[in-house]
From TrEMBL:
Transmembrane segments annotated in the record for this chain: 29-47, 96-115, 127-149, 155-177, 204-229, 249-269
CDD domains noted in UniProt: TM_PBP2 (cd06261)
Official protein name in the record: ABC transporter permease
Compartments (UniProt record): Cell membrane
Domain of life from the UniProt record: Bacteria
Species of origin: Ramlibacter agri
């Protein structure tokens, strides 16, 4: 009897229509990007309110609204206007790209040579350590005297700042290769070039990109420092002009433009890194850090 009752209940349960479960709505505030935007809005709102409430002088800390107005005025000008952000920003971006490509390329090339010649590392190590410890800001005026106020001096300063991070991280990456992989390739009669191409270079790529990411930030700093020391055009020159006019809001607006340039350059490197290191988990490629 009990079995018959269970069978009847099961048949009734199967006959009843099953209500589909409603899909849970995704919480929009759970996104990291949304949280970052909310944090930025909160900080900017607090900044604006604090300046207005405590009546901070605008030449010390300008309100966010003044920075936004100065940013709009600078971007609303024509691309060739000498008082706008587009012309000076183009000069600064050209300096950053040239210095970054030359400095990073030379650092990577020397790192490759050193990885293939262990004696060269022992020979160059004291010179690299000595040059790396020299403050580049102190050398900048000398470079401007040597190369003049044109774009060459700024490119050289950026090269000095971007060269060492790429060099040091690339050498560390070539050292981090698994010895078993090299022994396996040697057992298969691989040439030194094949060992480098198949084992050393792919293993060093995360370290190389870590150095390039650091070099990208240093490139922006180097461009501004070089323009501070001596230049005719560039965002650094624009900051000096606005500070001379006590236009603190305009100076902050130029800093915003510089931050955007750095973000775009870093984002482009991250995109290239994801494409090149497609065989590597995203967390592993991003968490690989090297002390420089």
């Amino acid at each position: 009897m009990t079995t018959a009752m269970l069978t009847t209940n099961d048949s009734i349960a199967q006959a009843l229509p099953v209500k589909p479960k409603r899909p849970r709505r995704a919480n929009p505030f759970a996104s990291t990007r949304v949280q970052a935007i909310l944090l930025l809005v909160t900080l900017l709102g607090s900044w604006e309110a604090a300046v207005r409430i405590f009546k901070v002088p605008k030449y010390l800390v300008p309100p966010v609204s003044d920075i936004a107005i100065a940013l709009w005025r600078g971007l609303a000008t024509g691309p060739l206007a000498k008082d706008g952000f587009w012309f000076h920003g183009g000069v600064t971006v050209a300096e950053i790209l040239l210095g970054f490509l030359i400095g990073g390329g030379v650092g990577l090339a020397i790192g490759i040579v050193v990885s293939q010649m262990p004696k060269a590392e022992a020979l160059l190590e004291p010179y690299v350590a000595a040059l790396q410890s020299v403050p580049k800001v102190a050398v900048a005026p000398i470079i401007v005297v040597w190369l003049g106020f044109g774009i060459g001096s700024k490119v050289m300063i950026i090269c000095l700042l971007t060269f060492f991070p790429v060099l040091v991280t690339s050498i560390a990456g070539f050292k981090a290769v698994d010895p078993d992989r090299i022994d396996l390739l040697r057992s298969l009669s691989a040439t030194p070039w094949q060992i480098f191409r198949k084992a050393k270079f792919p293993s060093a790529l995360p370290y190389i990109f870590a150095g390039l990411n650091m070099a990208a930030a240093f490139a922006v700093v180097g461009a501004v420092v070089g323009e501070f020391v001596g230049a005719q055009n560039g965002l650094g020159v624009l900051i000096l002009q606005m500070e001379a006019q006590m236009d603190t809001g305009g100076s902050f607006a130029v800093c915003v433009v510089l931050s955007v340039i750095g973000i775009v350059l870093t984002g482009a490197l991250r995109r290239i890194q994801r494409r090149v290191l497609h065989w590597m988990p995203a967390d592993s490629s991003q968490q690989r850090t090297v002390n420089v």
